[in-house]
Design goal:
Length: 191
C-alpha cells in the first residue's frame, strides 16, 4: 500500500522511516487557523491532524494510507505554537523555564481504499531546568527555536534544557511512533 505523509517536517519523515521504508511526502495546504482552540488539547491536535490528512487524501488518485500529524506545546492552558519572532520565542522559553509543560501530538489516518479513518493523540510531560536570559538568547541566536512549537526542539540543542520527561520521547519530537503503529493496526492496515 502507498503511504503518504502529509507533513514537510524532516523530523517526522525521519521517524516514519522507522515504520515504513518508502512513503511519499505531500504537504497539506490545510489552514490550521481554521480550527478554534476550545480548551481541549487532545481534540484540538486531532482535529488539525485530520484536516491535514483529509486535505491530502482529496488530492490523491491512487489508494493510499494518508498520515496527518500536529504537535503543540501547552502550559497552564495556553497553547504555544511556533514563535512569530525572536521576542515571541524569548517569551515562550522564559515561560517554560524551570517549569513543567505538556506536549500533545495528534495523529490522523485515512485509508483511501476503504474509507476508514482513525485518530488518536499522545501527551508527554516535559520539565525544563531554570534558564538564564543569556542561555535563552544564545539558543534563539542559533535559529533552532523559530520553527518549533513551544520554541524548542528536544532532539536538537534545546534538549539540554530538559531535566525530565514523562511519556513518549518521540511525541515531543513530533511523531509518537508507538501510538502511530497501534493506530495503523487498529484501522486494519498491514504495512
Amino acid at each position: 500500500m502507498n503511504v503518504v505523509l502529509a507533513s514537510a517536517s524532516a523530523r517526522r519523515q525521519e521517524l516514519l522511516r522507522r515504520l515504513v521504508e518508502e512513503f511519499k511526502i505531500i504537504v497539506s495546504d490545510f489552514d490550521e487557523n481554521s480550527v478554534r482552540f476550545g480548551g481541549d488539547c487532545p481534540s484540538y491536535v486531532m482535529e488539525i491532524a485530520l484536516g491535514k490528512a483529509r486535505d491530502v487524501a482529496c488530492s490523491l488518485d491512487e489508494e493510499s494510507l494518508v498520515i496527518g500529524c500536529d504537535t503543540i506545546v501547552a502550559y497552564e492552558g495556553t497553547v504555544l505554537g511556533k514563535p512569530v519572532d525572536r521576542e515571541d520565542a524569548f517569551s515562550m522559553l522564559s515561560m517554560l523555564s524551570g517549569k513543567r509543560h505538556q506536549v500533545y501530538s495528534g495523529i490522523a489516518l485515512i485509508d483511501t481504499a476503504t474509507g476508514r479513518v482513525g485518530t488518536d493523540f499522545a501527551v508527554t510531560e516535559v520539565k525544563f531546568e531554570h534558564l538564564t536570559e543569556a542561555e535563552i538568547w544564545k539558543y534563539i541566536d542559533s535559529g533552532e527555536p523559530m520553527d518549533k512549537a513551544g520554541a524548542y526542539g528536544i532532539q536538537g540543542h534545546g534538549g539540554v534544557f530538559v531535566e525530565e520527561i514523562c511519556g513518549c520521547y518521540y511525541n515531543v519530537v513530533g511523531l509518537p511512533l508507538n501510538k502511530l503503529n497501534k493506530l495503523i493496526k487498529g484501522i486494519g492496515v498491514n504495512l
